[in-house]
Design a protein that fits this description.
With about 900 residues, this protein is an all-alpha fold. Among the domains are: about 140-245, no CATH class; about 425-520, no CATH class; about 530-770, no CATH class; about 805-835. About 55% of the residues lie in helices and about 0% in strands. The chain contains 28 helices and four strands. The protein has helices at about 5-15, 35-55, 80-90, 95-100, 120-140, 185-190, 195-205, 210-245, 245-255, 265-270, 280-290, 305-330, 335-340, 370-405, 445-450, 460-470, 480-500, 505-520, 525-550, 560-575, 585-595, 605-620, 630-640, 685-690, 695-715, 725-735, 745-770, 805-884, and strands at about 60, 75, 150, 155. The strands form two sheets. It has a two-stranded antiparallel sheet. A two-stranded antiparallel sheet has the order 3-4. α22 packs parallel to α25 (about 695-715) and α25 (about 695-715) packs parallel to α27. The protein is flat. The relative contact order is 0.03. The model is unreliable at about 160-180, about 190-205, about 260-275, about 335-410 and about 425-435 (pLDDT under 50). Its main location: nucleus. It comes from Fibroporia radiculosa. One of its GO terms (biological process) is maturation of SSU-rRNA. Belongs to the NOP14 family.
Length: about 900
Amino acid sequence: MAKGSQLSQLKAALNQAGLSRPPQNSKKRKRTAPDEKDKEKQAAKLKEIHQKLNPFDVKVTKLKHDVGGRKIAGVTGRPAQSKQAGIEQRKKTLLKELEGKNHAGGVLDRRFGENDPTMTPEERMLERFTREQQRVSKGEIFNLEDEDELTHYGQSLSKLDDFDNVGLGLDDEDDEDRGQLDRDTVRRSHFGGFGDDAEDEDEEPARKKSKAEVMDEVIAKSKIYKMQRQAQQEEDETLRRELDQELDSLRSLLYAPDPSGTPGEHSAQIAATPTKLSAQDQEYDQIVRELAFDKRAKPKDRTKTEEEIAAEEKESLEKAERRRIRRMNGEPEESDEEGSGKKNLTKGHGGDDLDDDFHEEGEWNGLGMGLGDDTKADEEEDADEREREESSEDEADSASIDSENSEDPEAEEGDSEALVGMTHRTRSKTYRTKELPFTFPCPSNHDEFLEIIDGIDDADVPTVVQRMRTLHHPSLAEDNKLKLQGLTSVLIDHVLYITSPSTPRFSLLASLIPHLYALTKSYPIQSAEHFVSKLTLMHKNLKRGLSRGATQLDAKTWPGLPELSLLRVIGEIWPTSDKNHHVVSVARMLMGAYIGLGRVRSIQDLASGAFLCSLFLQYESLSKRIVPETVNFLANSVLHLAPHTFADKSSLPGFFPCQDFGSKQCASLAIDFSKMKKTTLGKPNLPQLLSDTDTSEQGKLNLLGLSLELLDRFADMYKSLDGFIELYDPILRLLDGVRSQSFPEGLLERLTSIKDTIRRLLKFSRQARRPLMLQAHKPIPIPTYVPKFEQSSSNYLRNRDPDHERNEAAKLRRQYKQEKKGAIRELRKDARFLASEQQNQQKEKDRAYNQRMKRVIGSLESERAEEKAMEREKTKEKKRSGRK
């Protein structure tokens, strides 16, 4: 770079780069447009020259240890450019936020009546139209070119023949003020804005109009507009008369003919309209009223809430119940009373009427005409028989209860307690002879529920429960929630009641489970308490039976049909795959206690245990938790029922417990195939097996087939367990020891299939099993002793900590510190930028204020100067007049 001033350096740099202008010759040269590439090259050279001319724009960081050949980022920087880039970026972001800081966004609906729920849409539209017309007319109120009436002091100028009493102060009575205008009149008339005069002032020299000229102009214009309005009114009246005469044609356009109707009807309707001119006004008013009653579009039905649906269902049920009672009593229905009186009249007797359908009021039984006497007598006889039977049964039950209480006063220690009261268990089966009511009270206990459903078929009991839930929905009353919670316990008691021997009703149980599930889902805590209370009572009964003696025949150590039904319902309602559950965990522990602690004494115990094993199979189908009691019980069942080659306990394979093997009570459980006439394998009848009514060989055969099937299904469920080999290898050897020569064909096929399946699963388990090995570790390296450097000794060794975790923590601390410094630096730059922008805005406001004040002060000074000059002129005039 050449020495000297910056101007000389710039010229030298331009000449050296070839960017200076060539010398102008006298001869004219042909100019050629520069190429785009040449322009880019020139711009790059100019930029390089500009950078070299300003050495302070480049910041160079001096390296402490400079090594040649290294390229280190951040050594050179351009602070001015980076600062300018930061300012431009903040103008795009922070400045926009500052400008819109106090601005409220969003769209506000300011239409009239939009937020007023008391107004109908028609009223809103009418009021909006009125206000729009008022707004339009308000803007044109002083426009003399429009057709609206010009008003003065709230009165139309067209209605003022003279200008008396309009506030001009020209009355003849005021002699003192005659010929002068008051201040208000001057303000309104002279400065009220006569637009035409203001326009003329620009062309002609300003001249003050006299009062007479102003009033003449006003009167002339008012008369002109009055004539124009009268002409317009005459035209409107003429047009209105023409429309009245063409009313029939307008009606034909409004009321188009119906495509589905005949053209004759439309022509007759048009012909029926009056044509007299005197009746047109009345007809027009009548048509307008008819248009007001036209059918308008209605919105679709909205989705109703749960409370509204429950209220409607309750109202419909109550209405149906009232209609049913009126129909049962022979009274007319509500619709009949509201209608014509012809429906209430009794039917007249015909000539061949035998008078066999006569019945008195109040004897309607819902079965039809002509059946009242016979059916009533039959009902009376059936009712008498039922009363006699129930009284005898109640006496027998009370006698048995008294005898039990007298024999054992301490029943809690020895006898088992019933899960539900069975006082009405042996009630006679009644058939419904009347229509099912629509409203029912919500029972608080099971006895009330039995009274409600007394005489109702089992198929209608779910309907009764559904109507109870509908009538006592929680949203209809405050105490309905407690009533439905009580209904849950009532349904649990009824499940135990209907599954009690000797006539269990499983179809009714299946229809009640959905209602019990819905109530449990609504009130899980209360339902769980009811279920747990029943399970606790079952556990107490089991402990009482075990304390009496597990091998005693009168000890209740196995669940009956009601208990099994309750456990089955629990598996249907509650989730059984949870690890810990308030209801299922208790039920699982109780079932395990039944199977593990109970002793087999009869075929009923085997049937109950087999059903518990099937329940465990259902419970653990998802979680696949192992229950060894089930496999042990099924193995013992096979030993009790099937013939085998094992003589004593020592010859049995494996180590599963077999306490009842070879006992006297279990000796009669073995199947005697010689007594069987028909050897076909079927499904066991659980109610018959548990009620001690089916102890035949066929029942034992079916129970043996069920045990084998359950062993197969448990093997399929436990095949992925690590201990499957130890669990099922003894089972396979036990099945191999069963004598199957006398088995029927179906049982033999099942046994063979099960043994093949277990062998195959055991083979796969042995192939997948690997011996235990020590945990594989990486080879232990030779210990290296790294010296511990002191962190404060040298800056170079500060980041060389041998502890990796401590080194990473220090690295994170340094990064955090750097980021914090950078954030503080950026926040300070933002604050300086915002402060400078606010200062600039304040300066702009001050400058505008000073200019405005200067203009005002200048205008005041000029006016004061003119005033002083006028005063001086007046003073001179006075002096002159005084000298004269």
